[in-house]
Amino acid sequence: MSVREAVAVAHPNVALSKYWGKREGPGNYPAVPSLSVTLSGMTTRTRVRWRDDLPGDRVVLDGRELCAQQGWRALALVDRVRRELGVGAHAEVESRNDFPTASGLASSASGFAALALAAVASCSEAWDAARVSDLARVASASAARSLFGGFVELDAGPPSPRGGEVLAARPVAPPEHLPLVVLVCVTTEGPKAVGSTDGMRATLARSPYARAWLEYAPRAHAELRRALLARDFEAVGELAEASALAMHASAIAGGLVYWTGATVEALAAVRAVRAGGTPAFATVDAGPHVKVLVRPQDAAGVRVTMGGVPGVLRVIEAPPGAGARVERAQRADAREAS
Ligand code: DP6
Q: In this structure, are 209 and 151 located in the same domain?
């Protein structure tokens, strides 16, 4: 029996300039550009194993087998790899996160980055990182960015996508470019109520501010990119916080409130830290957790402050980190394709 198996690891990323909204049409193309920092300190590890003896593909996440409805993006991804790389077997996918899954801690970003890399690495060495990033993007656009380490950018998709256009993320600067630490203030260990895909759809369909967001986001992105390249921590922080607040303002106006009381308390605590003279800036994704950007020398003190905020369960300290990598690959009898 042929052995095709690979294990890949990937880390979540947090967007400083947010992706929120998709192009109409097939292929999961973002409507706005985004820029993120890949984090260390939280890891998804995914194994893909192709087996001749399986009746169908299987996806097991954190020890629980997903039904077709829950696992459809992962199933679509492995199906594409099977077709494009000419594999005649079914895939067994096993993935584990060492942080809460699906609660707005970007587990889909690290999850689909690790899955795309493991699925490809188990069959072929011929795909470059951009092609793997594009594969991950179709499953979840933020995952395209987790293939790369440090500061990473993803452009908006074409205005009227047909579905096959390649759109990969690309690195903008290495992890050490701008010294910072992200303090992830975990406010719940449970899954979020509305996933990003549905949340974006609801925002574009119902928010009176959706158009304003789509116009604002590319400008804010360009400014943030400039501040990052200039290594201006305070400008990056201010623009990141503004991007998150504008995204949530648009979502909230459409009836979609990801925040809880703890989110609001944590945002107030960040403002108080700043008023006290320490540069600290907040960002929030499609969930209730607040992520605080601080300089490394301020991380320990701000961590203590955030840990004391009512509703904050724990604080994870995550400096910028590396991109996804293959830990192990075995391709006996693999048919190479490109
Ligand atoms: C708020 O990448 O999860 O985290 O492409 O529909 O899977 P899909 O969405 P996803 O959205 C991430 C939204 C965000 C902002 C960001 O990461 O840019």
A: no
